[in-house]
Amino acid sequence: MRLLIVEDDRKLADFVARGLRAEGFAVDLAADGRAGRDHVDSYQYDLLILDLMLPLISGTELLRMVRRSNPTLPVLILTARDATDDKVKHFEAGADDYLTKPFDFAELVVRVKSLLRRTPVERTDVILVSNLEVNRLTRQVCRGGQNIELTGKEYALLEYLLSSPSRVFTRTMILEHVWDQSFEGVTNIVDVYVRHLRRKVDDPFPVKLIHTVRGVGYCVREAQQPAEAE
Amino acid sequence: MNYRSLAFRLSLWYSLLLSATFALVGIGMFYGLQQYLRSSLRDSLRRRSAQVEQILDQSRPDISDAEISDAINTRVSPEFNNRFVRVTREPATLNYRSGPPADRSFDPKAVPPIAAEWLNSGVGRHTVTVPDQRLMVSATRIDTPSGRYLIELGSSLALIDALQDRLLTLLGLLLPALVVCAAGGGYLLVNWALRPVDRMSQTAEQMSIKNLEARLPVVPIGDALERLSLSLNHMLKRLRDSVQNSRRFLADASHELRTPLTVVKGELQEIVAGVSVQGAMRERIGSVLEEVARLEHLVSGLLALSRFDAGEAQLEWYEVDLAALGESTSEQMRLIAEDRGVELECSTLEPTVIRGDRGRLKQVIVNLLDNAIRFTSRGGSVAVRTARDDLYSILEVHDTGIGIPTAALPHIFERFFRVDEARSREDGGAGLGLSIAKSICSAHGAQIEVASEVGHGSCFRLVFPRPGTATSARVSARTNRSNAAVRYKPHIFSVARPPAAVSPGAASSASDVEAGRSSQPTSMP
User: Fold this and answer.
1) Which of A39, B162, B193, B263 is deepest in the core (most CB within 10 A)?
2) Using an 8 Å Cβ cutoff, are A56 and A33 in contact?
3) For residue A127, what are the contacts with CB-CB under 8 A and spacing of at least 6?
4) What is the pLDDT at residue B425?
């Protein structure tokens, strides 16, 4: 899988490229719109990650060009503008997804993978982490053979955390997936729900599965040591 | 008619001045004419009198009354000329008196003798008017060979009177008519002259921060109005440029701030997720990350506010039931309330549908509920209520929390305002939540109001004009204005309070809190 990142901010481009390479992608960088166009013309990329504010040729313009020459190339827009009409405008111009800065890298990976149809989500009906078992069909949760009763939101939270075990989910991601944007930045609702979830899932058992990564968010993993490379 | 309008006042003053001028001209004309006519009558009387004098002067000393009478009748013919002639030889012999005039305007026999004091004064000539006969009489005393005569020659003033009457009638009819015409014409003229101003104000009315491209109509007549419209248009252009600049700045600033934030956050998250960093360092990086998250929140809050300021915020308008929205949001927040030992209650929900952006409205409710829960101590309660009447839909968030000091109330919707430092530490927010809530409400044409008493609780109220009511825009405009002046006065609450919308107990506790005179802790039903 080969990706092209067109982003004029060198550090951001490097950071995203490094992370995506670590995920196993081949990544090319272009620092301005013209270089981006040249790259797209010369190689058949699987995904284009496009910043909107670019020198020489703007991201919007480049998006239109790409759509004319290559209608099927998935395009993920990275932008600092989060006005709804901006989003609508770019979806109309042919963007496939839209990520507003400052984004969480984990969220970027999720979007990239879903655009590449290589979703990491376990498609099996039963997710198993250590002795925690979640049945996505019956929405039944049990640990060590013991049934655990969860409320709707608690279940949604747990299922989301389990969608990619060992990955750290940021509070923003959790809010956007389990609640909605109205709660963003206002409440500690995620922490409250995680605490309740822990009370039911972790407290009765010696091995804790839900881990806090300070300043980042939460993850579910088997290992007890606090930090493990993803 | 608008009695305070410029056109009315101008034409009023104009017609007052015009009336005064006309009155002065009329009076002057009337009396000038009178003077002129009388003096010419006097001259003609004297000429006639001279003829009589001549007859007497040239007569023989023994001239008889019949001869005098003949001579006068021949040369002056007073009856035919409507004149009065009387010749008296002193001391008191009446020699001649003319008969009744042809037009019967006076009675010669009734004309009284000339005043005695003049006779004694020794002056040669004297002219008097005899009021009851409307007669002007010129009296002359001459010495002749036949003795000393007093000649009285008169003429009726009837002609002059008639002329003056005609003039008076003419002036009396013509002048008011002229004044009325002038006033009406002046009113129309002023209105016509002000019409370009009207058009300018209509155009200006349609302009908003979103529509700065419109320009005022320029009337090319080279006067103050043209200069006014031109300079206003220049001002609009500068305004548009500065708005465009600030929008560009907004976009640039968002880009410039958010890109480095993404890098900082990403790199730190990667470090903290790695194995190489342990213990205290992890904690410190985590703490930095928390600050980064706050910065991120702050930046997006500021940008949201700037967008509302610039009128750029796009709302997605749908029908929203405030009660359903309040209830679902409360359900989502319930666990947070339980966690803090606060009872969250939403039993008094009257369905009321407004048009608005569901997501943004929810943001407001989340914000208010979060504040209410945060500032209510264990065992307290928070209540969401909705109500409606003909004009308004209302959503209230009550709490029995620590309350807001009266001095702070007018400022709590200001950006970065904090009631006190202790709160700010507990809060951890950026101090933008209520400002954003207010901006969202304004974008909906709604009011956000607050009433609070320290130690008893606070009440935040969202007042939306009802959709579909023809007057809703006007009413909301009116409340906007009146509320701006007296927003924090308790009576606003009673004005906006719908009848029987809130249960009596709740209503009294609410108004007590609002009025700041509650003697006991407010109780939520």
Assistant:
1) B263
2) yes
3) A133, A134, A136, A159, A162, A165
4) 47
Residue B512 pLDDT:
37
H helices of chain A, where? 10-22, 33-42, 59-69, 84-92, 105-115, 152-162, 171-178, 189-201
Model pLDDT, residue B421: 60
Q: Which residues pair with B309 in a beta bridge?
A: none
> Does A101 sit within 8 Å of B303, measured CB to CB?
no
pTM of the model: 0.60
DSSP state of B358: H
Quote the pLDDT of residue B518: 35
What distance in Å separates the CA atoms of residue B404 and residue B409, rounded to the nearest whole number?
7
Specify burial of residue B289 (Cβ count, 10 A radius: 0-12, 13-18, 19+): buried
Number of H helices, E strands in chain B: 13, 12
Answer for the pair A170, A106: CB distance below 8 angstroms, yes or no. yes
Write the CB contacts of B4 (distance below 8 Å, at least 6 apart in sequence): none
Q: Sort strands B135-144 and B125-130 into parallel, antiparallel or unpaired.
A: antiparallel
Reduced to 3 states (helix: H, G, I; strand: E, B; else coil), residue B57 is helix
Handedness of CA B246, B250, B251, B252 (dihedral sign): positive
B445 contacts B417 by C-beta, under 8 angstroms? no
- Order across the sheet with B147-156: list the strands: B93-97, B83-89, B147-156, B135-144, B125-130
CB within 8 Å of B81: residues ≥ 6 apart? B101
- Pick left, alpha or beta for residue A25 (phi over 0 → left; psi -120 to 50 → alpha; otherwise beta): beta
Its sign, for the CA torsion B162, B164, B169, B174, is positive
Query: Residue A15 CB: number of other CB atoms within 10 A?
Result: 20
CB pair distance less than 8 Å for A186 and B262? no
Which contacts qualify for A136-145: CB closer than 8 Å, 24 or more apart? A141/A201, A143/A201, A143/A205, A144/A205
Q: Which residue in chain B is spatially nearest to A191 when comparing CA positions?
A: B336
For residue B316, the chain A residues in CB contact (below 8 A) are: 84
Task: Give this complex's ipTM.
Answer: 0.78
> A146 in contact with B at a CB cutoff of 8 Å?
no
The two structure tokens encoding residue B228: 């006014």
| Residue A202, token pair as written in the block | 């972790």
Q: Which of B307, B366, B367 sits opposite A83 (nearest CB)?
A: B307
